[in-house]
Fold each of these.
Amino acid sequence: MSDFPDNVATETSSTQSQQGGSSFQLASISMDLGLIKSIPGILMLAEIGLGLLQWALIASASSLIPAYGWVMFVAVTLWLLTIILFFMLFFGAYHKLSSVPWPMLVMVYNAMATVLYLTAFLANAASVAPYISTYFYGHMAAAAFFGIVVTLLYGASTFFSYLAWKGDGGNAASNSGPA
């Protein structure tokens, strides 16, 4: 204990949001509160919420049709990846990883999610008919409905991601945020 220094020097710093939005900082974690007020942030939250609802509806039914394996894979995987992406953007990971082309990465992710969700929706919608006389018909029909809604949300996110990428000029070394 005698080796412990008598004086300890500390330095603190704060970062401001690059987009002019409000930010909240706690220790070394900063939260971009402007994200949840922006259109891309609202779309991501809707994708998370409605994606959860879609895969919960499918998981609640006894699935006898192999197509629902694909629908569940797409819904759960993209739901988890969207949550991870949202928290990375919300906590400002793009400031720490400035070498990653965030606007292009988010645009490509949203475009791939749109295509994958479209295939999952088509598989889901095409497989609803066998359930017409069962208790789970409503679950599967509702899952198909929410599947197309989430597909449209990812499509809108792709559009806004494209606008953000185009406004950035596609510069891979850019330090700006994706949304």
Amino acid sequence: MYLITVLGNLLIILAVSSDSHLHTPMYFFLSNLSLVDICFTSTTVPKMLVNIQSQNKAITYAGCITQMYFFLLFGGLDDFLLAVMAYDRYVAICHPLHYMVIMNSRLCGLLVLMSWIMVVFLFYGTSLGVHLSSAATHSSHSSAAASVMYTVATPMLNPFIYSLRNKDIKRALKGFYGMASTMGTIIQE
């Protein structure tokens, strides 16, 4: 699941960056969401896989603080980027003639920057302190399964939900694969 998450989201980033037709606000936000999903999943899953392999569930205090910080940071960014994407779609549907004027590249960059800044301020000071100050409790298998679903399944499904049903992304991926196979043929000769 982790490899599918990383590869699926990387394909979205590559498709958007390699196809100039996808250099629009919607795809800009989608590629940022893909990057955040990779980072979000990478904050916990590698450590979890090491724990499963080594049968050792210990984590240092500094490691726990670091992991919690990045988990909250990227989780919050996910939420804010989804809100920004919803606003982008709202403008595209309700004000289609003014879309390119409203959603210019400056506003798109500002919205993503504001997403990052708001997450840092909201989660760094409050959530991290609350979560770290509480005593550790023994978690049940059901809460562990729910955690895995939230941290792995949702970021894994985002590429399928947001883009693989999209004709523009499919076209860009076909072009990307065609370019990659051409490069492979050139290298082999």
Amino acid sequence: MEVNFLFVKSKRSALKIAEMIIAFVAFVSFAASSSGVFIAVPLMEIIITLAFYILYLLKLDSKMTLLFWPLMDSVNSVFAALLLLIICIAAVVSRITAGVITGSVFGFIAVALYVADAYVMYRLITFNQRKTPSQ
């Protein structure tokens, strides 16, 4: 397997790592507060983001060309942001404990990171348009 060292040093890599760390903190906070209802979405997003990270790290996106991976990544980021936003709002409205507040705050930070990731990935997608030099 070939490792993509350029991806490791890129902003996208740092963004994906930050997403996983913040989603993990939200997951731990929700789990520690005994609100098991809210732990599924952050855990799911940690796993999906890790899968995309490994996909780009090992250059598997160029070997598995059946799907358009940047579009899949940006769609995942949009859905992750929406799901986490819904979960965090529901968590804040339903129960007020320190763990739920902490999980919701980190969930809202994760929402911002997933929106930023979707924007970055959308900017990389050309949709068969000619790339124009920046001025």
